[in-house]
Amino acid sequence: MLRDLPALFRSRGYIYAAVLTAGVTTLAIEVSALRLLGNVFGTANFVWAAIIGAVLLYLAVGNYAGGVWADAGPRADRFYELLAWAGIATGALPLVSRPVLLWSAGWVAQLNGAVAAGAFAGALLLLAAPLALLGAVTPFAVRLLLDDPAGAGKIAGRVYAVSTGGSLLGCFLPVLLVIPAVGTRLTFIAFAGLLVAVALGGLAPRQPRRAALMLVMAALLAGLAAWLARAPAKPIAGLQFETESAYNLIQVVKRNGIRYLLLNEGQGIHSMLDPNNAATGGTWDYFLAAPYFTERRPDKAPVERVAIVGLAAGTIARQYTLAFGAVPIDGIELDAEIVAAGRKYFELTQPNVNVIIGDGRWVLAHSSERYSVVLVDAYRLPYIPAHLTTVEFFREVRAHLALDGALAVNVGRAPDDRRLVDAIATTLASVFASVHIMDVPHSLNSVLVATMEPTQSAMLRRNLEALPGSASPLLRMALVAGVQALRPPAQPGLLFTDDRVPIEQLTDSILLRFLLQSGRPGLEG
Fold it and tell me: pTM for the whole thing?
């Protein structure tokens, strides 16, 4: 079998293997680039659009250049050398981009929008070399395999089919397997190593010295990457823990004795834990007011069962347990790695909390439970799952609420832009009898509470006055804060349905306003 290897590396079939590997790597770069840039700029639609646009541009340039290079010198050694350089450029991408992204992160932390936008454009330019080289692979392979012009169509079709099949693999492998296992930076290195290995297999029998030189270059690059991989993907003061899941870059930071959960670009706080203070002073406290927008019967507990869509590291679950005791709580969270961080760093260990890993809408649709309150904390600009904002989703929630139940939703806004709040309130009002709004002080958040039966905001004050003396101080504080945070009803806004959810147009403009604010709300101040 070993004697057959040289023949294998020289065969036409090996060229197809090289094309397949190039296709895998191309999509792996595209998918992984979102994670690389998302750590700084987030994953809003305009970030995706910029990456996809850059990929298509560079592939088009590479396709054209590859055809020209192939006609100028249709030799297999040049083809494999092209593949090797593409692998080396891919491996260098996270290393070269690191100083650019760190520089960008500093400006984003100061929220200097213009400079951040320039740095973002510079980061995208880093994709040019590997993707242009990979774009040249397919037309070069077609030229090498073309013996008879009469069969040109069949050869080209076969090569592009193999390349597309590789791209299909490259679409799923990074997200489902490689990034969760080794992280974003080593994902680039892994696919670069695969590309270089295939290239050297074809180049070594033809140009052994050149292959040896490229092997040395690739080995040095891999060693440097392994050394840099030990550093945090995005350094931040007080970092205690960092990992990458299939969905997020997850960071736990500790400042002044308080732990915070940050995701991706780190501009929003997704959970917090102050071991010396039950109250957080943030959005999570205001969720405690949700059951008190309806009239409370003295003989019935205000909360009998709770569902949380967007459990994160468990701050809301902890608040409800402290305020109401060990009531059953179903905490729904898409990202299992966030739950693991919650258990280790945020005391997400209450026996009354039933953690369900999955999509909130899917889990509710397949649940037979009824809840006193359903709490949705899955909106964080720019991460707003459109399917959790629609009339159809809120109807699903309504079907799982008790007759005197309530739904509370955390919605982001800009200081002078309430369009998203108005749109969510309008959508809620099409399903529920009443909708109330609390603006969380010193933040860019509003908590909207929708009730099954017609209610007045004044009911919150009456329930506060009727609280027994034995009520939790945390609960009493939350109701006092809720009364003070009440806002007038929302203005008419867009109605979101499964068929039409133009939420990105809103969130993109709100995100821009958010980035132009001074300081991270809630973290620095």
Answer: 0.73
